[in-house]
Amino acid sequence: MLQHWLLGSLALQNIGRRKARASLLIAAVAISSAIVFTGVVMMRSIETSMAVGFSRLGADLMVVPQNALTNITAALLTAEPTGEVLDADLLDQAHITGISRAAPQRVFRTEQSEFGGQGESVDLIGYDPGNDFTIQPWINERLGRPMQPGDVILGAARDVPLGSEIALFGKPFRVYAKLGRTGAGTHERGIFMPSAELLALVPAIREQTRKTPPMLEPRKVSGFLIELTPGATELQVRFALLSHLSGTKVVAGGSLLTGIRQGVTALLGGAISLVSMMFASTALMVSVLFSAIVTERRSELGLLKAIGAKRSQIVGMVLIEAIVATGGGGLCGVVFGMLLLRLFERSLVYYLTEIGVPFLWLDRMDTVLVAAACILGAGLIGAIGALTPAWRSSRHDPYDLIRGEG
Amino acid sequence: MLSCRRLRKTYQTDRGPVDAVRGVDLDVAARHYVAVIGRSGSGKSSLMAMIGGLSQPSAGSILIEGADIWSFNDNAMAQFRNRRIGYIFQFASLLPTLRAIDNVALPALLDRHSGTADTYNRAAQLLTEVGLGSHFDAYPSEMSAGEQRRTVIARALINNPILLLADEPTSDLDVETESEIMALLLNVNHERGTTLILVTHNLALASKAEQVVQIADGAIVP
Fold first, then answer.
1. A298-A299-A302 Cα angle (round to 5)
2. CATH of the domain at B113
3. What is the pLDDT of residues A82-139, one digit of tens each?
4. Domain that holds residue B128
5. Which of A20, A209, A385, B105 is least enclosed, having the fewest CB within 10 Å?
6. Using a CB-CB distance cutoff of 8 angstroms, which residues of chain A are in contact with residue B109?
7. Residues A356, A56: contact at Cβ < 8 Å?
8. DSSP summary character for residue A361
9. Out of B78, B96, B97, whose CB is closest to A310?
């Protein structure tokens, strides 16, 4: 403990000896850390916001049976309620490249669900929670717990309070969440539940209607909503789908939105790469600087060895100095970064919110983790940068170091 | 107490190898004062550095109290330098960021073989013995060259070494201060019984030694 205090004290004193140089080093690391911290928090926030925002824009393509009637709407959010069906493993069998996500849906339109008024037409929509990207992002309000079996989600046009119980074919369901307004009829009036829940309702439906609707057969779906991978064009994937899948129709969404989604995703990837390169260049700079610092301090290190300092103590002292300087820079950078985030919050984010573009900040715990990672990363950069010169110096004889060699 | 055999030191330079010490055999008895004399560049400092564990010989052996010091591993060698050797360089060798008392206490703190309070008590006592009782809190930049050298002597004695090596410790001091410092070193040798090997150009000082070693061109002049 005493040794650590002694070495730490010497390291701090060494930092204080060259105040201008230490300040410049701390400032350089602080600026890099601030850029990395702000960049990562902003980009992760933008990514999350975009994930929700772009999902709300709907799918890029929709695959439905060839004879199905489809409404041409601005956003592809649900398949259409027709009697035509597709095989549930259709896309898996086709192995088509360029597809990022494919969300199968079952849409069953019925007047016999006993929901609403007598004979009211209701669309029951089964979705795959793991692949869905057009229903869950539209949730506006929900109960304060995870979704459970027996829960349903209602479209915005359904005027039923959250948490209330509804009956479908005599089975009770709880209204877990409600969607925002989309302008798409099926989406606004639908009752949504995981496909497994909808399939579990089949015996009750069969009892009521005396038949099993084709889309509620276990291996059938009404259609697929498709999101393309970055770089894949709508035309290419559409052509591939049509050439591989007979008896299907491919409906395209807004190609402009697809382009924006793919472009911004690529841009974010590029920005993250730039931030990483900046961190790497800072590491190199610190390494070069500490190499010079250790060289400058050779005679002092030699003197310490001459009076009995061990190699580990020499290396430890230099590392403490480097970690304190760069870690301190990292801490300053995070504080500076937080101020920058506040500035963004009051300018760009405020403007986006004003014009109705949702902006979701990275949650507090993740932000703290990013901050801690920046400070640790900055300290680590110092340690890595100083380790080699410190280790090399510690290997030399004290006399060589005192004479300015080594 | 000290026995050097066929000791060699060769430095590799851009112009080829340079032999600084060439086959030195030297024996020193415990508690003796040995003066090493010779012209500049004759190999005195290289010899001292090898004996003090600061520079590895190119060949030969050094036995101190029967132990071959250059067979020690890194940590054992660090402990040997710390506990057994007191080294006084020909230049001011204090850490500038530490007070005089911290500089004196530093070797004991590095090895941690006694408590902090004991170490600082001993450091204060040594500083008082070398005449710096009122300079405990002074930084090196606030002390004269002579005071700095006294502080170095106090630091060299903090762990009660068996061998005190002084490599031209007064080369940059005025005559009066030189006399004071040399008196101090000889007193350490007489009073404490610490073996003293002193490199000096001062023949009057050398004449007081129990053994005089003259070096020329890296070898002992018979």
1. 85
2. 3.40.50.300
3. 778 888 888 888 788 888 888 999 989 888 888 877 777 888 999 999 988 888 888 8
4. 2-220
5. A20
6. 2-3, 6
7. no
8. P
9. B78
